[in-house]
From TrEMBL:
Organism of origin: Sistotremastrum niveocremeum HHB9708
Gene3D superfamilies: 3.40.50.450
Identification of the protein by name: Lysine decarboxylase
SUPFAM superfamilies: MCP/YpsA-like
UniProt xrefs under NCBIfam families: Rossman fold protein, TIGR00730 family
Length: 227
């Protein structure tokens, strides 16, 4: 297909409290590198974001971080300067001595960040995360539904993290707000039914298989003409 091979990964800037989350992020990064698919992500080296980008680069892959300028932290020799002087630093340090396979793009706003990420990729992957991750995933799946693009959105359902979202979608279908055929706009990779295997499962291969197998449901686009 003519779709870009690059993959956007939306995920938390925290690590979460289960090792399986980090394992899944590492597995995705390694699979992207192994199959020569560039990673596009929100920049930064903290949390699950840092795990997936680090794993991609460590395995010889390439990564592009897209960072809103408001989130950039001034640094001196790579050390963050916290405005409070102490506590956890929230934001992204632009690393001057960055990895040769790492590109960082600075944009003006959160909205521009998502447009820039979406423009560069052929698919989206959701690892566990919080409000920001949910919002990004919901926006790009909406864009597929209304025909701005036609790209798969694959949720890595580690330890059932996204199962309640699947239930919410089913509720919206039962309630007449989502068409039955549009359920498949969101693809869930569930992994083994035995969750004790989730910290060793090959999430990367399963996720890429789901991306490659995806085709747009009929009836998406609503006939809108987007420029």
């Amino acid at each position: 297909s003519g779709r870009s091979r690059a993959v956007a990964v939306f995920c938390g800037s925290s690590l979460g409290n289960q090792k399986a989350f980090e394992h899944a992020a590492t597995s995705i990064g390694h699979a992207l590198a192994r199959t020569s698919r560039p990673l596009v992500y929100g920049g930064g080296s903290k949390g699950i974001m840092g795990v997936v980008s680090g794993a991609t680069l460590d395995a010889g892959g390439s990564a592009t971080g897209v960072v809103p300028e408001a989130m950039i932290i001034p640094s001196q020799s790579g050390k963050a300067i916290s405005s409070e002087g102490q506590g956890e630093v929230k934001g992204v340090i632009l690393n001057e001595s960055a990895h040769e396979n790492m590109e960082q793009i600075v944009v003006k706003s959160m909205h521009e960040r998502k447009v820039e990420m979406a423009r560069r990729v052929g698919a989206f992957v959701g690892l566990p995360g919080g409000y920001g991750t949910f919002e990004e995933l919901m926006e790009v799946v909406t864009w597929t539904q209304i025909g701005i693009h036609s790209k798969p959105v694959v949720l890595v359902n580690v330890l059932g993290f996204y199962s309640s979202l699947r239930e919410l979608v089913r509720t919206a279908v039962r309630s007449g707000f989502i068409k039955e055929e549009n359920v498949d706009l969101l693809v869930f990779v569930d992994g083994p039914s035995d969750q004790s295997q989730h910290s060793t499962f090959d999430w990367g291969s399963a996720t890429l298989e789901a991306i490659d197998a995806w085709s747009p449901p009929t009836g998406t686009g609503f006939g809108f003409k987007w420029s």
